[in-house]
Request: fold
Amino acid sequence: MIELSVVVPMFNEESFIETLLRRVCSSIEEVPGGSEVLVIDDGSTDRSAELVQQLALPGCRLISLSRNGGKGAAVRHGIAAARGQFILVQDADLEYDPSDIGPMLEAARMQGRPVAVYGSRKLGAHSQLVGVRSQLRIWPGQGLPQWAFGNLLSFAYLLLTGRWISDLLTGYKLYPRSIFENWNTKTDGFETDHEITMRLNCLRIPVIEVPVNYVPRSRADGKKIRSRDAFIALITLAKFRRCSK
Reply:
């Protein structure tokens, strides 16, 4: 078993995927226990898969799905193929900085027990920005509706579990491999992230947050998550609040 698997769900990301994968591979090449990158092509109709194949980066493997099944389905396939002790899900765009992978992995190592590590954009904004943006914990270019709903989602999670996570909507999450044993996921879309969060709660696996960088992209740049996904997130948290025996 290697130490780290980076799972990259990808759907029509030809504008970003080459740069993203180069940065990811550069960031993890010195992981002591070994690492790999699994790019899960979720039925892309552009040149994304072709570009990944042409790159032929060491330790980077392309897994192509026959049809677009949603981010959650792609993540599920990636987790099933992963060999790492830790599994990090990396969005295929450039909103998140792969240089933050190292601090997230180190935070997990230091605990001496199974933990999940979430890269918090709110903590990152608070520590790196100044003035009102630092106090509100909002990055330049970040949409106000998304920011507001992120806060609402955190409070909903607190009410449901008694635990606080500042940034449930972050696209940077690192999990211990052990939580996926006997995992029978019920979701396929963006809400799979929240199903996993509730699984962590049921398994009593702590979630540690570390600050990360964030460069928001717009819908014109290819951002795929929509307003309806925010409400689906709330429903998912409520649906999985009861732990299966």
